[in-house]
UniProtKB/TrEMBL annotation:
This is glucan endo-1,3-beta-D-glucosidase. The keyword Hydrolase applies. Keywords: Glycosidase, Hydrolase, Signal. Residues 357-369 have a biased composition (Pro residues). Pfam families: Glyco_hydro_17. Residues 1-26 form the signal peptide. GO terms for molecular function: glucan endo-1,3-beta-D-glucosidase activity. InterPro entries: GH, Glyco_hydro_17, Glyco_hydro_17_plant. Belongs to the glycosyl hydrolase 17 family. It comes from the Eukaryota. The lineage of its organism: Eukaryota, Viridiplantae, Streptophyta, Embryophyta, Tracheophyta. It catalyses: Hydrolysis of (1->3)-beta-D-glucosidic linkages in (1->3)-beta-D-glucans.
Length: 448
């Protein structure tokens, strides 16, 4: 009976671990932008099925389309909705308008649809409209008050999205600073974010950084590929990719404004897979390299040099191409998926594409011996690596996977060696689960 109970407990633990592993396939730090400036998009219900088949954990809408919000109900996918820039004057001056906006766009769907954040406008500072800029923070306050009046103030955050041009300086990252022209408005905005625990949202695009400096070394730096790095004399850190450098420039700007506790969210980042003839760098090869390597970087949990050990929530741009967008050809070529739901190119977001490729057949290995322990022998204290030999394991206190990199093939190898190497090797959740499962299976074979 004791052995039966032990067996039941081990099977239960294994079941829970496997469930945790599969739930972890939806990664909360990876989001995607879902724009609607197109005439060929699939129905929201089909898009919802597509999203559920991926590891995407959040979706950002530029408005509050009811069909999309409804289609994502009961999915646990976090939803960001937004007001238009045109709504800002009314939101700022009329609290009842803000309440009506919440009544119309949030209350009918929440909590079945997991609305997590409302963006008030998009790249308002970049617009140059001084009247609109001055009304931004009052509009955010009124939206927050409207949420609070519905007892949703602590559930749904309020923020706004910025272009990188909100910074007056971004190189080196340690010298990042906000444009002083935004002065009091920026102070008020950051005060609001601190008071409400809301994130600072920004759109870093290494794609555009490369276009302003189109040389091979810059391309490698932007694509997370091997390069000589860029030293920051202010911190003695050598940056190995543009994404980290841009995000840390924002971090430095926030820190300089006494906003060290304000989290950063990357609201948009991506790479065009085609463009006009004069748009350097827009290709499928570069787009795939950027997005795949960015995703691998986020999954590594290494973080940035100034924010180590965690991944910044990042919304990829974009889910689909938007064929009605004006401007350069690249504006209509950022989509990771086609209207027929196939991938434009594979960056490892779908469950099938995350499956490891079949490795080459290894050379034969001797059969593993199953040791028989004498009565009173202490239980093993190591996690076995594919067998039950104690010497083949690593101590739990040593960190499970120790020096091994458990990232899937094709991901960690593209990651640059950053100068903030004090953070242990890529200790992903699947790696830990694998070690625990191996240990429990071995334990069962020894003691049941």
């Amino acid at each position: 009976m004791d052995k039966l109970r032990q067996s039941s407990w081990i099977l239960l633990i294994l079941s829970l671990l496997f469930q945790s592993f599969f739930y972890a396939n939806s990664e909360s730090f990876i989001g995607i932008n879902y724009g609607l400036v197109a005439d060929n998009l699939p129905p929201p219900s089909e898009t919802a099925k597509l999203l559920k088949s991926t590891s995407i954990g959040k979706v950002r809408l530029y408005g509050a389309d009811p069909a999309i919000i409804t289609s994502l109900a009961n999915s646990d996918i976090g939803i960001v909705i937004g007001t238009s820039n045109a709504d800002i004057p009314a939101l700022a001056t009329d609290p009842s308008f803000a309440k009506q906006w919440i009544t119309t766009n949030v209350k009918p769907y929440y909590p079945a649809s997991n609305i997590i954040l409302i963006t008030v406008g998009n790249e308002v500072f970049k617009s140059g409209d001084q009247n609109l800029i001055s009304q931004l923070v009052p509009a955010m306050h009124n939206v927050q008050e409207a949420l609070s009046s519905e007892s949703l103030g602590g559930e749904i955050k309020v923020s706004t999205v910025h272009a990188m041009s909100v910074l007056a300086n971004s190189e080196p990252p340690s010298a990042g600073s906000f444009d002083p022209a935004f002065g009091d408005t920026m102070k008020g905005l950051l005060g609001f974010l601190k008071d409400t625990g809301s994130p600072f949202m920004v759109n870093p695009y290494p794609f555009f950084a490369y276009q302003s400096d189109p040389i091979p070394e810059t391309l490698a730096f932007c694509l997370f590929q091997p390069n000589s790095g860029r030293p920051d004399s202010g911190t003695q850190i050598t940056y190995m990719n543009m994404f980290d450098a841009q995000v840390d420039a924002v971090r430095s700007a926030l820190n300089a404004m006494d906003s060290k506790d304000v989290e950063i969210v990357v609201a948009e980042t991506g790479w065009a897979y085609k463009g006009d003839t004069d748009e350097v760098g827009a290709s499928i090869e570069n787009a795939k390299a950027y997005n795949a390597n960015l995703i691998a970087h986020l999954r590594s949990m290494v973080g940035t040099p100034l924010m180590p050990g965690k991944s910044v929530d990042t919304y990829l741009f974009a889910l689909y191409d938007e064929d009605l967008k004006p401007g350069k050809g690249s504006e209509r070529a950022f989509g990771l998926f086609n209207p027929d739901l196939t991938m434009t190119y594979d960056v490892g977001l779908t469950m099938s594409s995350q499956s490891p490729k079949t490795p080459p057949t290894p050379p034969p290995t001797p059969p593993t011996r199953t040791p028989v322990l004498a009565p009173g022998t202490p239980y093993p204290t190591t996690f076995p690596r594919g067998g039950c030999e104690p010497q083949d394991g690593v101590s739990l206190a040593d960190g499970g996977c120790k020096g091994n990199n458990c990232s899937p093939p094709g991901s960690a190898c593209v990651e640059p060696k950053t100068s903030h190497g004090q953070h242990m090797n890529d200790y992903t959740f699947p790696c830990i689960v694998s070690s625990l499962v191996s240990f429990l299976l071995c334990f069962a074979s020894l003691h049941l």
